[in-house]
């Protein structure tokens, strides 16, 4: 007798793995469709980062290295030396290549706890670090994105064996490349080869439990980028932001969908009506600060200071050299000096030009202005007259899409906005006796100490007074590709001023490998 308890099923049970055939398979083009669904780069990166950082810091619930993972080694017959060991009543897990000591965990957490980023770069990384528990907490998706691509490769520079560190760094570099807004299609095949090799290298160090479905999906990101374009056009960041807006529509939690629909319809109706009303701002569109940040706007502090003649002339000369209208007169003046001093070399001509160009330019423009006023523009006349000795001094200034702080304001803030870099033309000579110097563009890195706005009667020009790093011995590129600067090696004290319109924002983080050096990271323009 075969007794079966319970009611029998009305239909025959499906013995295959799939219980339902998707309606999409009825589409005629479905079998030839290359991309049937998007892989969300945002969540893949977040989950991979949590696996890496959880395993390195041995965070409970996030680590892929536990007793079961070590038993997998024994069951699979690989790396049996890492299998669990019985010592009395306790089970001991031998340290693996990725295992960090408590001192190394402190080094990594201390580095992250000291990171200060510019405005709009990310959330405050320091608040995510628990030095007591030596772990990261309350991580949002964008926090994982920033730490994975920028800070984790720096934080592990002084810890972990070389091969493990190199593999993790290459994984971080892959995500940084695949998440770029501009990707050269020619490098995608190389990226595909590199990520396959990187995952194989990680398999040599990390346990099998580390390689879940999320780590596997990393292999397919390059192919999807080739077919669908850059990841930022497909990932979930804008969707998640809009979901937060929709959640704010819900006032009756028992009817969330209805609340969203009614609020959306009301906003659409009002938005339609605002098209016929003057001086009415659109709903949900805050006033953009982008225009003000591009053109220039003072933010903090407003003092009037009196500058010395040396500082005023130094700034004025730099402004003249960076004005398109003045450029022809610069060449005229140099030609005059060459004609009067045919036996002098180019170095002497440049020094003499810098010394006497301001009075020559003023006399030349005003003589031309009195003889033919129409030939001189108002801006050129103001430039020839020069700026006032009374200048506006600020602690913060927004321009070029960045927010800049002085070093003094930076020290009081939770953000780091005082780093700056400019690309300027510099004269290069091989020796003191070199009679044919070469001119080429060179990048300079420094910290803003003063923000001045000079008044030229009809217009104003913001100027940054910076402490520049000496290029010869203060800047280097290490073997890992990190740009390093020694902020204590100061140079170019006679050329400390620079027009704010040429500035690009950077910020510096301490190098865990060497306290002398800082690593340069570039800020994002808003």
What does it look like?
The chain is an alpha+beta fold and 526 residues long. It has three domains: 41-232, no CATH class; 237-274, no CATH class; 304-522, no CATH class. It has 17 helices and 18 strands. It has helices spanning 41-57, 67-76, 102-113, 141-155, 162-178, 188-203, 213-217, 221-228, 237-249, 256-274, 290-295, 309-321, 327-340, 346-371, 378-385, 407-412, 471-474, and strands at 85-87, 90-92, 129-130, 135-136, 297-300, 303-306, 390-394, 396-399, 402-405, 419-428, 438-455, 460-469, 475-477, 483-485, 490-491, 497-499, 504-510, 518-522. Strands 6, 7, 10, 11, 12, 13, 14, 15, 16, 17 and 18 form an eleven-stranded antiparallel β-sheet that branches. A three-stranded antiparallel β-sheet has the order 5-8-9. A two-stranded antiparallel ribbon has the order 1-2. α6 (188-203) runs antiparallel to α8, α13 crosses α14 and α14 packs across α15. The radius of gyration is 31 Å and the shape is globular. The N and C termini lie far apart (78 Å).
């Amino acid at each position: 007798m075969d007794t079966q308890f319970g009611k029998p099923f009305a239909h025959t049970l499906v013995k295959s793995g799939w219980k339902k055939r998707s309606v999409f398979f009825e589409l005629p083009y479905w079998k030839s469709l290359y991309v049937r669904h998007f892989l969300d780069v945002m969540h893949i990166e977040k989950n991979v980062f949590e696996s890496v950082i959880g395993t390195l810091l041995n965070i409970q619930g996030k680590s892929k290295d536990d007793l079961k993972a070590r038993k997998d080694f024994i069951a699979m017959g690989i790396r049996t030396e890492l299998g669990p060991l019985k010592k009395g009543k306790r089970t001991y897990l031998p340290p693996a290549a990725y295992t960090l000591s408590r001192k190394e965990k402190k080094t990594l957490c201390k580095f992250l706890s000291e990171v200060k980023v510019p405005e709009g770069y990310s959330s405050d990384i320091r608040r995510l670090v628990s030095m007591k528990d030596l772990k990261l907490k309350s991580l949002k998706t964008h926090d994982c994105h920033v730490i994975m691509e920028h800070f984790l490769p720096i934080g592990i520079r002084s810890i972990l064996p070389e091969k493990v560190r190199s593999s993790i760094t290459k994984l971080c570099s892959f995500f940084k490349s695949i998440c770029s807004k501009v990707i050269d299609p020619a490098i995608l095949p190389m990226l595909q080869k590199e990520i396959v090799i990187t995952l194989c290298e990680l398999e040599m160090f990390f346990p099998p439990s580390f390689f879940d479905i999320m780590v596997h999906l990393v292999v397919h990101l390059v192919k999807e980028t080739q077919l669908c374009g850059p990841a930022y056009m497909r990932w979930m960041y804008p969707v998640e932001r809009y979901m937060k807006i929709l959640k704010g529509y819900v006032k009756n939690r028992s009817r969330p969908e209805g609340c969203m629909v009614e609020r959306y319809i009301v906003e659409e109706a009002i938005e339609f009506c605002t098209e016929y009303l003057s001086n009415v701002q659109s709903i949900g569109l805050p006033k953009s600060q982008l225009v003000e940040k591009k053109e220039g706007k003072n933010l903090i502090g407003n003092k009037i200071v009196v500058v010395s003649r040396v500082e005023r002339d130094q700034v004025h000369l730099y402004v003249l050299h960076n004005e398109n209208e003045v450029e022809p007169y610069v060449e005229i003046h140099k030609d005059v000096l060459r004609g009067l001093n045919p036996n002098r070399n180019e170095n002497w001509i440049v020094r003499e030009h810098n010394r006497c160009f301001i009075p020559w330019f003023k006399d030349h423009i005003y003589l031309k202005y009195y003889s033919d006023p129409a030939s001189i523009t108002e801006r050129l006349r103001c430039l020839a007259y020069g700026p006032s000795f009374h200048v506006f001094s600020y602690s913060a200034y927004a321009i070029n899409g960045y927010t800049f702080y002085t070093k003094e304001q930076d020290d009081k803030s939770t953000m780091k906005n005082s780093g700056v870099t400019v690309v300027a033309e510099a004269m290069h000579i091989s020796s003191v006796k070199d009679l044919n110097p070469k001119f080429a563009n060179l990048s300079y890195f420094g910290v803003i100490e003063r923000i001045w706005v000079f008044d030229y009667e009809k217009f104003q020009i913001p100027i940054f007074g910076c402490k520049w790093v000496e290029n010869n011995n203060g800047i280097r590129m290490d073997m890992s590709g990190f740009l390093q600067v020694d902020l204590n090696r100061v140079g170019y004290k006679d050329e400390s001023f620079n027009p704010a319109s040429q500035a690009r924002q950077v910020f510096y983080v301490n190098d865990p490998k060497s306290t002398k050096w800082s690593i340069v990271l570039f800020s994002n323009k808003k």
